[in-house]
Write a structure and sequence with these properties.
The protein starts with a strand and ends in a 21-residue tail after the last helix. With 80 residues, the chain is of the alpha+beta class. It has a domain at 2-50. The chain has a two-stranded parallel sheet with strand order 1-2. It has four helices and two strands; from the N terminus they run βααβαα. The longest helix has 10 residues, at 27-36. It comes from Meloidogyne incognita (Southern root-knot nematode worm). This is Reverse transcriptase RNase H-like domain-containing protein. InterPro entries: Retrovirus_Pol_polyprotein.
Length: 80
Amino acid sequence: MLVLRTDHKPLLAIFGKNKGIKVFSASRLQRWALLLTNYDFKIEFVSTNQMGMADTLSRLISEKSELEDKVIALVSGSEN
């Protein structure tokens, strides 16, 4: 079993025991929820004081959108 430790208490309600995500949740949370459903995990709350120093990349806000359009397959045809 994978143990996820976080200092973000609202995540316990979102990804906690039920592991269900609300329909109105942000799309980023929905993507994480979909990814995490493949694993057997539990989430534990750890206070920020006990987490230690956060690395820069964990707290960095990205200016780039995470979503990009990707062409997986292109199908074309013509009628003769």
